Amino acid sequence: MEPTISESPARVLAGRRVLITAGPTHEAIDPVRYIANASSGKMGYAIARAARDAGAEVVLVSGPVAIPEPEGVEIVRVVSAAEMLEACEREFPACDAAILAAAVADFTPAHPRGRKIKKDEGGLTILELKETADILKELSSKKGERAVVGFAAETNDLLTHAEEKLEEKGCDLIVANDVSRADSTFGSDTDQVTFVAPDGVAELPLLPKDEVARRLVARLAALLAKGTRE
Ligand code: CTP
């Protein structure tokens, strides 16, 4: 009888510890209301599974999502952008790489109320917001030899914006995603992405998110083997 050939993926991340962020964040307006976005967390969770299957120790910092927790992965659950930043800053020093796939809120209420806002007590017509910290930029500024990967969700001028983000954030790779396409947006099971790095651009075809995740993991392994920019 022919021996069975195992199709288990190459363990290209064996011995590496990888931080991954996923999902949206929720920014409290009052105890029952929040600002959120349409991120499902599917991409970040697919990356966490792919990195685990490639032999990495995975720490998944997850915003509020409604998808099953991957097995064999350490999960840190957070709600707000501030909590996500705190968890990432705690976990990053012990990691070899970070892939920041979360759709972090860019703005948060400047004065969240401790009590539910009542309509008959003036209600809410104006909401003052302040910017959140940029986690990708923060981690990139302290990365040393670690690899840091960010995402760029764009609706127009994809490559220009992704190249600007690569420089502005100081990371090693941007996964650029045209979210104006119905087959490549929040909640879909497929994605058409382009890897944008200082040494060039690689456009991938439309693929299931699991396959995008596997290719990203292979790219990360190559980046770690070659040495990242400091
Ligand atoms: N990101 C982050 N912290 C934030 C906002 C974004 O770490 N406060 C990260 C995301 O996880 C993603 C990357 O930055 O990896 C790009 O996110 P995106 O929303 O596309 O870009 P922004 O920097 O928010 O810029 P803009 O919304 O103006 O396009």
Give your account of this protein's structure.
The protein is of the alpha/beta class. It has a single domain, classed as Rossmann fold (3-Layer(aba) Sandwich), CATH 3.40.50. Helix content is 26%, strand content 26%. It is built from five helices and 14 strands. It has helices spanning 42-53, 81-91, 135-141, 158-169, 209-226; strands at residues 17-22, 27-30, 33-35, 57-62, 74-77, 97-100, 107-109, 129-131, 147-154, 173-178, 190-191, 193-197, 200-203, 207-208. Strands 5-4-1-6-9-10-12-13 form an eight-stranded mixed β-sheet, with helices on both faces. The protein is globular and about 60 Å long. The site of cytidine-5'-triphosphate has 14 residues, from helix 3 and strand 9.
Provide key terms for this protein.
14 strands, binds cytidine-5'-triphosphate, alpha/beta, 5 helices, Rossmann fold, 26% strand, 230 residues
Any low-confidence stretches, pLDDT <50, length ≥5?
A: none
Mean pLDDT: 93
The spatial strand order of the largest sheet comes to: 5-4-1-6-9-10-12-13
CATH architecture: 3-Layer(aba) Sandwich
Shape: globular
CATH superfamily: CoaB-like
Write the H/E string, N to C: EEEHEEHEEEHEHEEEEEH
CATH class: Alpha Beta
CATH topology: the name is: Rossmann fold
- SS strand fraction: 25-35%
Number of strands: 14
What structural category arises from helix and sheet content? alpha/beta
Helix amount, in percent? 25-40%
What gyration radius follows from the Cα positions, in whole Å?
Answer: 19 Å
What count of helical segments does DSSP give? 5
Instruction: Provide the number of structural domains.
Output: 1
Hetero ligands: cytidine-5'-triphosphate
Major β-sheet profile: 8 strands, mixed
